[in-house]
């Protein structure tokens, strides 16, 4: 009789599902990949077959030209893999199209979360806890110091800064996939109906979100606008553009950054961020521990972040856990 969970292996390049001869979020091209979402530390081109939600496949086609071998899997859909393995995709709440993958084999259930968050997000379906035997969780913000405030408070802070500085532009650094669209959607929920201006690097992904049914309102490119046209306006750019030569064309911008890392003041200072906005697309410490308690697995496998603290929490709460050593897993300007 084989050991429990011996059919699923955590190897440096990803999670290997042995009897199905496939990988989850592998760091290099493989014959068959099950992909949780479109961020570059989980998705890549070159696979023979890519199984993902239709939205993730559309994102991967835009970013990595992965149309060949694309196999769409809807939320709630169960697919049969070789070797008696089944896989069911469920929402992860991280970005549009993000999924947890429930694997079932030989009476055992393993959930691979990819990245996830527990907060409401108007751009994607919410996370759903799935009871399982092994829960493979990220730990990007796996330290007790990380507690994300309500996003409504951060959006109010942003709008207050704009109102107080009508001669300046508020320039928000936000990652191109997920964060930028969430900030825009939250601004709309807060009643901000004016145009929002975009750096060219954000335009295609925002348009794809709209094509996939996520309304973002009036979006306009910054390129070609006179400096005065952006006074009192809100603009978004990649974090790398916040303090480069490109940003100098804007009218005395208030530099803002939307990231869970803005909880760490030193990070804000290092990036010359005037207005830190603690907005994350990952679970914070309390949400990580609550999720493990809700799922109540026999084992918790921890990856992608601060494994040691979450591993210690599991030990103190009499929960069997282990830290994985996967390569290529880094936060993408969360």
TrEMBL record:
Q: What class of enzyme is it?
A: hydrolase
The residues covered by the Metallo-beta-lactamase domain are 19-175
Which InterPro entries did the record assign?
MBL, Metallo-B-lactamas, RibonucZ/Hydroxyglut_hydro, Xnuc_lig_assoc
Q: Tell me the NCBIfam families matching this sequence.
A: Xnuc_lig_assoc (TIGR04122)
The cross-references to SMART domains, in alphabetical order and at most eight, read: Lactamase_B
* Presence of the UniProt keyword Nuclease in the record: yes
**What keywords were assigned to this record?**
Exonuclease, Hydrolase, Ligase, Nuclease
Instruction: Quote the EC number.
Output: 3.1.-.-
Q: Which Gene3D superfamilies match?
A: 3.40.50.10890, Ribonuclease Z/Hydroxyacylglutathione hydrolase-like (3.60.15.10)
Which GO molecular function terms does the record list?
A: exonuclease activity; ligase activity
> What is the source species?
Novosphingobium aquiterrae
Please report the name of this protein according to its UniProt entry.
Answer: Ligase-associated DNA damage response exonuclease
Check the record and name the Pfam families matching this protein: Lactamase_B
